[in-house]
Amino acid sequence: MSRLRNKGWVLPVSIVLAFLLALVPLPDLLLPLRPYWLALVLAYWVIETPERAGLGFAFCIGLLADVLTGGILGEQALRLVVMAFILQRFRARIRFFPLSQQALSIGGLLFNDRVIDAAIHLLGDAPLLPWSYWWAPLLGMALWLPLYVLLDAVRLGKRGR
């Protein structure tokens, strides 16, 4: 148990890295395909350590993400809180799925996130999102397995042999 307590730095570092990946400039062609790194990292922490990452945590990092990216204040906070709520509700089931089924669940959540984002844009009279915007949840779903394995290895202190 003390081994897990000594790894308290992993959560904040993973969130900071997710912020940095969200801020990395991409060419216009690849911009709509950018995975929602913050949601993927948050999903991992809500599933694995719900006592450390809950709705309040999701709201705070969402507000910080809105400030860092210059978006509508509260947009990402709402999106991340909805994702965290659904994950908390179904955590017991999702946690024990094989990683391939977890990836499908995460893909569904990322697609739901895109629907919420599109609705916010529609209500805010923002320009319609391009069709390529809908490919990002598939990319996020494909990235779930390596991200989960990496974060799990760092959090638990596993070494590759």
From TrEMBL:
<keyword id="KW-1133">Transmembrane helix</keyword>
<keyword id="KW-0472">Membrane</keyword>
<keyword id="KW-1003">Cell membrane</keyword>
<feature type="transmembrane region" description="Helical">
    <location>
        <begin position="53"/>
        <end position="73"/>
    </location>
</feature>
<feature type="transmembrane region" description="Helical">
    <location>
        <begin position="131"/>
        <end position="151"/>
    </location>
</feature>
<dbReference type="Pfam" id="PF04093">
    <property type="entry name" value="MreD"/>
</dbReference>
<feature type="transmembrane region" description="Helical">
    <location>
        <begin position="9"/>
        <end position="33"/>
    </location>
</feature>
<keyword id="KW-0997">Cell inner membrane</keyword>
<feature type="transmembrane region" description="Helical">
    <location>
        <begin position="94"/>
        <end position="111"/>
    </location>
</feature>
<keyword id="KW-0133">Cell shape</keyword>
<comment type="function">
    <text>Involved in formation of the rod shape of the cell. May also contribute to regulation of formation of penicillin-binding proteins.</text>
</comment>
<dbReference type="InterPro" id="IPR026034">
    <property type="entry name" value="MreD_proteobac"/>
</dbReference>
<protein>
    <recommendedName>
        <fullName>Rod shape-determining protein MreD</fullName>
    </recommendedName>
</protein>
<comment type="similarity">
    <text>Belongs to the MreD family.</text>
</comment>
<dbReference type="InterPro" id="IPR007227">
    <property type="entry name" value="Cell_shape_determining_MreD"/>
</dbReference>
<keyword id="KW-0812">Transmembrane</keyword>
